Amino acid sequence: MTREILLSATFLFCQAVASSGAQPAKMETAQLTLAPNVPPPIKRKEAAVVKVYLNAGYETAEIAPKLRYVFWTCNGHTPSPFIRARQGDTLQVESSGSDGRGRSRNIDFPAVLGAGGGPSFRA
After folding, report:
1. Residue 90 has pLDDT above 90, yes or no
2. Total-model pTM
């Protein structure tokens, strides 16, 4: 039975690092989509390294008359894009920031198992 997982990257002030250990031979770039759309089902049968490119930024928008709010964005959008991966895949996440205010952020994957949205701590 093949299982797929659908992730939404959320930028938080905590860090989650995920790796499955052995590197599969096949490499591909993730097809990211925005809600309510999800990436298409994965047709391959073998595990792969799935490259994901994310850019953290911010946008200011009016949410009510005369009320503006600063949104954290990922690839220019809020909420962040969806990532589809197959069980056994390794996500290779490359992140950058276009937040000119100099604020740093890390990436959290709420759908990934483990404490804080990632694998259990390994020494």
Report:
1. no
2. 0.66
